[in-house]
Give the backbone structure.
Amino acid sequence: MAFRKEHELHTRRRSRNMGMFIVLFGFVAVIFGLTMAKVRFEEEARPGVNVDVQINSGVSE
Amino acid sequence: MVDTSAYNETGEAQFGDYFALLKPRVMSLVVFTALAGLLVAPVSVHPMVGFASILFIAIGGGASGALNMWWDADIDRVMRRTANRPVPSGKVTGDEAMAIGLTLSVMSVVMLALASNFMAAGLLAFTIFFYVVIYTMWLKRWTPQNIVIGGAAGAFPPMIGWAVATGSVSIESVLMFLLIFMWTPPHFWALALFMKDDYSKAGVPMLTVTHGRRATRNHILVYTILLAPVAIGLGLTSIGGIIYTTLATVMSLGFLKGAFDIWKRDEKTAEADAYLTERKVFKFSLLYLFLLFGALMLEAALRSYGWGGW
C-alpha cells in the first residue's frame, strides 16, 4: 500500500520539526559529554577510587 | 478538509521565530562576557564543563529575553524598532513566549547547578529574576533610571562565569560587574540621543523625554567619569596586568573625551551634523567593552605561559 501524499502541514512545519530535532539531539549530546567529563574528572581527582566499581556496587546494593 | 494554509497569513511561527524570542544579539554579548569571566578566573575548568556552563548561561539569558517579550508586547507593538518581534507581529502568542521563557529559565538554572555549582546557578536565577521582575515588570515603566537598572542585569554574566570556575564571588568579579554596570548608561543614552524612538507613546519614561536631552548629556558625562576608575581599578587586581591597565587607561580617556564632547554640544549643533559625535561615541563604547574584556582574556592566556599579570 502506498503512503498517502504528504499533508501540507508537514511541509509547513518542517523547519520547526527539524529545529526541535537538532535542539533535542544537541541537548542529549551535551548531557553525554558533561557526564563523561565529570566521571573522568572524578577518576583523576581520586586516583585510588575506581569509578566503574563504585557504580556497579551502587547498582547491586 | 480544512485549509490550514490560511494560517500562513497570520504568520505561523517558524523555528527562527522561537529562536528570535531569545534575543540572539543580547545572547551573544552574554556569551562573550560570561566566557571572559570564566577564562580569567584563576581556577581552570574542564572544556566540556565550561562549554556546557556558558551554553546554560546563554539559555538563561535567552529565557529572560522571552519573558521580557511576553510582558512588553504592548510596548513593542507601539515602537517601530520592536514591532517586528515575534509576539507583537503575531507569529508567536504571548502565552507561548511565557511558557518557553519559564521552561527555559528553570531548565537553565537546574542544568547550570548540575554542570558547575550552586553559586553560579543561584546567580543565574537571580539575574533572570532581576531582569524579568525588577526591571521589566516593575522599574522599566516607572523610572527614567530604567537603563541603569536594566544594565545591572546585563552586568551579571561575567560574575556567573567567574562563579562557574571558582564557586565564589570576589573583588575581581564584582569589578567586572561594575564595569558593565557603569558602561551601560552612557552607551545606551548616546544611542537614545540619535535614535529618537517613540518611548513616550509607549509609556516608557526615557531620560531623554522625562528630563530632556540636556540632562541626558549631563548623565552621560557623569557615568563615564564614574566608569573610568572602575575600568582602571580592575587592572590593579589579580586578573589585570600591564596590557589591560594601559589599554583601559587609553580607552577610558577616549571615552571621557567623547562624553565631554557630547556634554559640550547642544541640540542645534547635534542636529546640524546629524548626531555625528553621539554616533561616534556609541560605536566607540562598543569597541571599549569588547577591547577591555578581550585584554583581560589576553592577560589570562599570557599568564598560563608565565607572562602577563603584574
